[in-house]
Design brief:
15 helices, alpha/beta, single chain, Rossmann fold, 3 domains, two-stranded antiparallel ribbon, eight-stranded mixed sheet
Length: 486
């Protein structure tokens, strides 16, 4: 649970640290020359001119031999210390304890190995300034991350929602551990009990949501990212059944001890104070790949939003002229493991089209819970064109930019469809939804519902950055050929 989020956020912190190193170098280089010039001239600081233009560039080049080891510093820090562990940077005292020895040793190494004979004063002052300013930035970076973890991560869409199987002493202790550490991005949603008489009661301030047999119902009706078996289950068959249900739904299966081998992507051990947990990931965690995927989402969505400025102006005008009403259509959709969010599209139907859906249900041409009509009477003339060309999907670039969606991932369903899912179909919700997916490039509305679900599970089980790239490239061709769009 936490270890994967910890690795993900460590990439964010190291990026912030690299920016801190560059900023510290950019400031410390001219400042050190300015200070040395002031000290040597023994003039008031106000009369010593600051460096600008070519002099500023010269000062940066003057200390270029210090820049390379400085740029290696965050990478060495990541591998040789614990300054990128969320559990080690929860307080200012913890940050100081983790970073102070690192920077003290680094300063001593700089003074021991660099040649200060030619420009002793300048290099010494530069070293002191750049290490001190980098240390300050490292502390600020981690304080910002801690603030974000404690404030920003207490939101519904980014917490790891944990369901605990068991209601004994160890189960309560685990729940209280997480409650005492708001910087840990884990929220316990409740318990499942071995004893039917406990259902509906409260344990450690949290509800007992049902019995062990109620696990499928709870997984489909509640936002759950991980299931933790906190106590020994006498029958190994029951334990394997819980793991199989987690696999089927695409949520993490976690044990308080190593009781089963399980079928999982990457089982690993986590330790929280005196509690050892064995975590089974049934969906590829790959923190570094997820980090790169998010960077690509941010870069691509930002560039496309800027490049498509003419469309942001023209399309709403055309929509309004064809059918008066708002150009944008916001609809509640279901994202990762049941999280709700507002997805944006250009309006392609008449206003209040949802109210007519019930009267048209007999015309539905899709099997399963999905509602599609080939010649939907609610679609406007412009709406039919922007659907054929997928222009109606463009506002979802802002969903990608804000993080509720990705460029590639299973299409986000509406809550009414999810309510009719079987447990095996829920696994398509185990990753962030996307604008395009295997279904989009394989025929879209021409594909039956179960085949659509199978394609989404295939994407999740075989996900990689290269697969995302292949889907994006094929999507361009599908959009140009208007294949499967209605």
């Amino acid at each position: 649970m936490i270890r994967q989020e910890e690795r993900y956020y460590s990439y964010i912190i190291i990026t912030m640290d690299y920016l801190a190193v560059l900023a510290s170098y950019a400031i410390a280089a001219p400042l050190s020359e300015w200070l040395v010039a002031h000290l040597q001239a023994q003039t008031p600081a106000s009369s010593t001119p600051l460096l600008f233009g070519e002099e500023l560039l010269s000062s940066w080049l003057h200390f270029y031999d210090l820049l390379f080891p400085l740029l290696l510093f965050p990478l060495l820090a990541m591998n040789l210390s614990r300054v990128y562990r969320l559990s080690r940077i929860s307080t200012l005292g913890g940050i100081l304890r983790e970073t102070a020895p690192l920077f003290l040793i680094s300063g001593l190494i700089f003074f021991a190995f660099f040649d200060f004979t030619v420009r002793y004063q300048e290099t010494a002052v530069m070293t002191i300034l750049v290490i001190a300013s980098t240390w300050f930035c490292f502390i600020v970076n981690r304080l910002l991350v801690v603030f974000f973890l404690r404030k920003g991560l207490r939101q519904e869409d980014v917490m790891n929602h944990l369901l605990i199987v068991g209601t004994g002493r160890r189960a309560a202790e685990i729940a209280m551990h997480f409650a005492r550490h708001p910087e840990w991005p884990v929220s316990v949603v409740g318990f499942l009990s071995h004893r039917p008489e406990e259902v509906g009661d409260v344990k450690a301030g949290l509800p007992i949501l049902g019995g062990i047999d109620d696990l499928p119902r709870v997984l489909t009706s509640t936002v759950v990212d991980s299931v933790l078996v906190s106590e020994t289950i006498q029958e190994l068959t029951a334990l394997r059944q819980i793991a199989a249900l987690c696999d089927l739904a695409g949520v993490d299966f976690t044990l308080n001890s190593s009781l089963v081998s399980g079928k999982a992507k990457a089982p690993f051990l986590e330790r929280y104070e005196n509690t050892n947990l064995l975590v089974y990931k049934f969906v590829d965690p790959a923190p570094f790949k997820l980090f790169i995927k998010r960077l690509l989402d941010l870069a691509a969505s930002s560039c496309l939003i800027v490049l498509l400025i003419p469309l942001w102006i023209a399309v709403p005008i055309v929509i309004y002229l064809d059918s008066p009403g708002p150009a944008l259509f916001a609809q509640e959709r279901v994202g990762k493991n049941g999280r709700r969010f507002r997805m944006w599209k250009y309006r392609s139907m008449i206003p209040d089209a949802d109210r007519l859906k019930a009267s048209l249900s007999h015309l539905n041409e899709m099997d399963g819970p999905v509602f599609k009509i080939k010649d939907d009477p609610r679609i406007t003339k412009v709406g039919r064109f922007i659907r054929k060309t997928s222009i109606d999907e463009l506002p979802q670039l802002f969903n990608v930019l804000l993080g509720s969606m990705s460029l590639v991932g299973p299409r986000p369903p509406v809550p009414g469809e999810v309510a009719q899912y079987g447990l095996w179909q829920k696994k398509r919700l185990s990753v962030k939804p996307g604008i395009t997916c295997l279904w989009q490039i394989s025929g879209r509305n021409e594909i039956k519902f179960d085949e659509w679900m199978r394609l989404d599970r295939q994407y999740i089980d075989n996900w990689s950055l290269s697969l995302d790239l292949q889907i994006l490239i094929k999507t361009v061709g599908v959009v140009l050929l208007r294949k499967g769009a209605e």
